[in-house]
Amino acid sequence: MSTETTASVSTHILDTSIGRPAEGVAISLSARTGRDGAWAALGGSATDADGRCKDLPALPEGTTHVRLDFETETYFAKKQAEAQQDAPRVRDSATFFPEVTITFAVHPGEHYHVPLLLNPFGYSVYRGS
């Protein structure tokens, strides 16, 4: 697809509670055309050891809005289990936000890098470069 008629998206996640990339977080990508258009699931991937998701599906021509769904609950449950090892579990949930959904507008020909700064009880997102 031509980069002049489509936008592109990339993302990465930093777990700010440990100051390290968040590996193994599943991410789903959806897109729509127009503010009232129906969402179309395009597929997904997971973050690598560097917290990056390098193989998100391409956006269809005419995409105006993108939605990234980050499955954070599984990631934090795994981190909690690793930290506690043989210790008893102290909470039923390892994270306050079991998922994070980010929706943003895109314009043809532009690249959108969307970093997620994540910890068990909060998150921040911004348009990166």
Helicity level, as a percent range?
10-25%
Radius of gyration: 16 Å
Strand content: 35-45%
Main sheet overview: 5 strands, mixed
CATH architecture: Sandwich
Number of strands: 9
On the 0 to 100 scale, the average pLDDT is 90
Count of discrete alpha- or pi-helical segments spanning 4 or more residues: 1
Low-confidence stretches: none
- The CATH H-level superfamily is Transthyretin/hydroxyisourate hydrolase domain
Question: What overall geometry do the principal axes of the alpha carbons give?
Answer: elongated
Question: Which H/E pattern describes the elements?
Answer: EEEEEEHEEE
Terminal residue distance: 21 Å
CATH class value: Mainly Beta
Structural class call reads mainly beta
- At the fold tier of CATH, the topology name is Immunoglobulin-like
Number of domains: 1
Task: Please characterize this protein's 3D structure.
The structure is a single chain. The chain is mainly β. The chain has one domain: Immunoglobulin-like. The protein has one helix at 72-84, and strands at 8-15, 20-21, 26-32, 40-46, 52-53, 65-71, 100-105, 111-119, 122-125. The strands form two sheets. Strands 1, 2, 5, 8 and 9 form a five-stranded mixed beta sheet that branches. It has a four-stranded antiparallel beta sheet with strand order 4-3-6-7. The radius of gyration is 16 Å and the shape is elongated. The two termini are 21 Å apart. The model has no long low-confidence stretch (mean pLDDT 90).
